Structure formats: C-alpha cells, structure tokens
Amino acid sequence: MILPITAYGMPVLKKVAKDIEEGSIDLQALVDNMFETMYKASGVGLAGPQVNENLRIFVIDGDPMSEEDPKCAGFKKVFINAEIIEETGEEWGVEEGCLSIPGIRETVYRPEKILIRYRDENWVEHEEEYDGWRARIIQHEYDHIEGILFTDHLSPLKKRLLKKKLTNISKGNIGIDYRMKFLK
C-alpha cells in the first residue's frame, strides 16, 4: 500500500523516533509499504517519520546511484533501531534532496565513512561499515529518525533564502506526483 509522505512542517519529522520492540507491529507490512511508497516517489531511501510513523526504521535501495558508485548496485536494506557508532573520514559535499521537502536540493557536508549497528527485517543484528554514496544515503535517512532534516545542516543565510519555499511545501502549495500529508 502506498502511504502518504509527510511534508516539511509536520511535527513527526522533528521528533527523535522511538525504538521498535520485536513483535510490537506488523513489521513486514510496514517494510513492504515503505518500499512501495519510496519507489512510487522515485526515492532511494525512506524513514518511518516520513510516512508519519515515529519509529526507528528506514529502508534503502541505492540501485539508482550505482552509476555514481558501483557499490550501490543491489544495495537494498532495511534498518531497524539503527545507531551510527562512528563517522570518519573527510567531509564531502553533495547536493541532497528529500521526499518530504520536494523541489529543494542543497549541498550538505557529511563524513565519508560510517560504522552502524542495526537490526534487519528478520531481527538479525548487524554492525557494518559503509562509505561513499551508501554512507551518504544511510546518514540522510538516519537523520530522519533523529528528528533532523537535511535543511538543518544549512547555514542560517541559506535557510532564510529557502524560507518561502519551505512554507509553501508545509502548506501544500507544490506540484508533486506522489501522495503527501501536509500540516493543516
């Protein structure tokens, strides 16, 4: 089932998401719905808060980024109760966008490598290192479960310049081709 994506301005996007207890939700249905929603919106990642679920879960399919980074080919994963343990390496700037903030893309600087601990959809615990685009996608989605948006990484001047666009998004004054839920 395709879920509406929560738009900039919705309170759930600014909250630290809650851990998922094993067996507490229909996890497979949520995972399936999140992937379906992400694909419909042409995204490479989607976090629980973006579908109005205040839960520490995000899904990723980095395949569309495989031309930029061959390691992204077949990189499809579910991250539950994730915790970034370490971020290392040089910070590199990449223009990021977000399904919850359509039509805005800005350069965000992030460390090039991460070490992350998480559970997969089968509740198996993993601790893995990622770099390049895979790390970038994970960091962006991880920010969502921490109540952080990519716009929070921008300078105060850049935020002021984007204020009107962000206000329009929060009010639903945008043209998009996927379902969204707006602040009323």
TrEMBL record:
Coiled coil: none annotated. It comes from the Bacteria. It catalyses: N-terminal N-formyl-L-methionyl-[peptide] + H2O = N-terminal L-methionyl-[peptide] + formate. GO terms for biological process: translation. Its EC number is 3.5.1.88. GO terms for molecular function: metal ion binding; peptide deformylase activity. InterPro entries: Peptide_deformylase, Peptide_deformylase_sf. Keywords: Hydrolase, Iron, Metal-binding, Protein biosynthesis. Pfam families: Pep_deformylase (PF01327). Its cofactor is Fe(2+). Fe cation binds at C98, H140, H144. Binds 1 Fe(2+) ion. The active site is at E141. Belongs to the polypeptide deformylase family. Removes the formyl group from the N-terminal Met of newly synthesized proteins. Requires at least a dipeptide for an efficient rate of reaction. N-terminal L-methionine is a prerequisite for activity but the enzyme has broad specificity at other positions. This is Peptide deformylase. The gene is def.
